[in-house]
Amino acid sequence: MKPKIVSWNVRGLNEATKRLRIRNLLRGWKVDIVCLQETKMKLIDRRIVRSLWSGVHVDWVYLASNGASGEVVVMWDRRVVEKLEEFIGRYTVACSFKSVSDNFLWAFAGVYGPNLNNNRVLLWEELAGLHCWWNLPWCIRGDFNVTRFPSESFGNRRGRPAMIDFSECISDLNLVDLPLAGGPTTWANNQTWSRLDRFLISPEWESHFPDV
């Protein structure tokens, strides 16, 4: 059974009204795994998790807010996947999972990327290290804060070298960049828009979940 995964840049979780809106949406979507970026929170405890996703079967791991970097929480339904190991990096939260239905072993990473090119190199190195550490089928999801192609942005100055480095990282890790559905962008502000969010999967993960 394919897990239903939702990823979302929430731009802050401190307001109770926003958490309630997210909770109502997650209930309607009937999700199995949730990845939220830009939480802007230093502590995510059980009270916060229950305000987002109720139920005794929910577990979580998070990267705390540290100024303008980090800020990722990954939550999952333990009836669907069992966490084997976890990793909390500078820009990444990752878990190795075992699917409860068929014991399939795979890894998931949630990413909130940096805005500076020098720091992006650290993200690519972090993902490469994770890919080697867990020799498993991968699903990587998040807000990478960089586009891959000039056609994916309008009205900003995101540099071409960063795009090339991002594409090389995807190629080196042998990942599949899933196409975007529902529109060409994932972020917009006045006259500026970009595609900053992506699902990257390994061919082995896609083979196991062919209807992704």
From TrEMBL:
The keyword Ribosomal protein does not apply. Probably binds two magnesium or manganese ions per subunit. Transmembrane segments: none annotated. It comes from the Eukaryota. Pfam families: Exo_endo_phos. One of its GO terms (molecular function) is DNA-(apurinic or apyrimidinic site) endonuclease activity. One of its GO terms (biological process) is base-excision repair. This is Endonuclease/exonuclease/phosphatase domain-containing protein. It comes from Carya illinoinensis (Pecan).
